[in-house]
Structures are given as C-alpha cells and as structure tokens.
Design brief:
73% of the residues lie in helices and 0% in strands. By secondary structure, the protein is mainly α. The longest helix has 17 residues. The radius of gyration is 21 Å and the shape is globular. It starts with a helix and ends in an 11-residue tail after the last helix.
Amino acid sequence: FAEWHVTDFMEGQFHRINKDVRAAIQSFERADRKTSGRWILVREQLAILYREDQQFGLALSTLDSVIDLYIEQNKQVPLEDYVNKAALLAKLNRPQEALHLVDDQLRGHPDDQRLLQIKATALNGLGRSDEARRLLAGTSEQGDPLMLSSALLAASEGDYAAAEATVRALLAKNPENPAAIRLLVRVLLADGRREDALKAVTEMRDDVTGAAARRLVATYEVVLGTEDQTRRNAELLKLIEATPDEFARLGELYNFYIAEPRRDLDKAEQYLSRMIELRPDSSDLIDKQFSVAVLRKDYSAAEGFSVKLAAANADRCGGAMY
C-alpha cells in the first residue's frame, strides 16, 4: 500500500495527532504529489501545517490553490479557508488585501469574531486605529481574538494600562494563549516594567501545561532574568536544543545567530543550509538566503536569490517586490 495516497494521508493525520509537524508535512506532501495537487483535503491540511511551521508565504499560496480548486469544482469555499487566508494576508503585512477579503465575508457572517479581529488588525495596519477602536467597541461579546485585538490596539496607542488589563483578563481565561503571553511581556517592557514582566512569566510557570507554552515561558524567564549575556545565550541555546522538531529547531538556531548583538552569519548560514536540505523547494528559505547575502553585502548573490523569489511569485505580486 506504500504507493496508495490514502496511506500517506493517514500517516499525516497520525503525525498531526502526535504534534510532529515536520513528519506530517512530509506525509501530506507525498499524498499531494501522488494526487497531482488535486486533493482538496490534503492541500487544506498542508496550508494549516505550513502556517503552524511559520512558512506563511507557502501557506498562502497553498490556500489560494485550495480556493481555486473549490471554485473550479463548483463547490462552496468554506468560511474557514477565507478566514485563514485573511489572517495570512495580515500576517504578511498586506492589510488592504486582508480588509477587502474580510469585508466580503462579513456580508454573510457579520458576527464572526475571527473576521472582526482580522478586520481590526488590518485597519490598525492601515493607520485607521479610530475605526478599529469603534469596531471593537461595537461588539457585544468579545472572545479571545477580539480581546487580543483590543489589547494590541491599546498598546499601539500607548495605553499600556488598558492593554495590560485586557490581556491579563484573556490569560485568566486561557493561560496557554501564546500570543497573549507575548503581548503581556511586550506591554510591560514598553511601559518600563521589566521586573513586573519577569514576575508575570514566573507566575505563569504553574498555570501552563502545554509544551509550547512552557517553552515560551521558560524562554522569557531566561531573557528577562539573566543579566550576564554569555550565560543568557547558553541558557537560550539549551532551550532551543530541546526543541523536538528538527526543522523548527534549525529555524530557531538560524534566528538565534542572525540576530544582533550576537550575529554570526557563518553559523546562521550553516543552520540555514541544513533547513534547505530538509525543504529544498521552500521559497521562505530562499528569502532567508537573500537576507544573509544582503547582510554579507554580497549583492551579486542577493540578486540571484531575488530572481528566484520573483520566479516563485513569493510575494504573491508577480515578483514586483523583488
């Protein structure tokens, strides 16, 4: 049964249940190749997994192909796919496109909190914070997405007290929410309250049980609680090395060595090369190669990577950004 695409699909589902994102992607990609990219369910799963793996450009292009398949087969596109596409557009800093898509979907689903949250994010990204605030104030009941948007909006306007109150209320309901954990730390640091930020994450330690949330809290404890830079870097590397997924671990090591003030381009490129071995067709990795070339001031190499990115339509604008 090895050549049967359903076997790969079932393996992918098994790996998803076990939270092995990389193995799940490989299984679904095999099923996708065997069905010539025509099996909607597999492509939808891949779009979700690429997003979880922070390959946002690839997730968007995959989701676009899913929507095209639904339309081609005269089937109704699920709202979930439009919500995910709008969220990806916002994540990729394309707020105007996200806003157009969300407004189209809100005509049929005016109370969908996910759509309202993305709309608020898009409006804020377009510099229309007053409209975003009115939108959020006009919702009768706020779930996690809208509470997060309200806190983000307040923080962007310097109202740290309101942002903190909202995000703490969100965490009281859902202490595992990683976006809320990150935002609380950002708000407290922006307000000049580093000790309070450290106290907050230390108190979270007993409230979080999921592996990802525990790693996030532990990372903040190291960053906020370790003054000595050498020791802090060693502790961070220890946390990164404990990441179970190989591709995610390599990505974190790349990010660690590409960042100032500890930038080491040779090591960053070493881990990037290993990521490329695992995913040779990823346009997101070509973008990282482009970044490394620019940092090295190797503009000839950067130009070559920009040509590849344009050919892959990585910006979803026909390569215009490159």
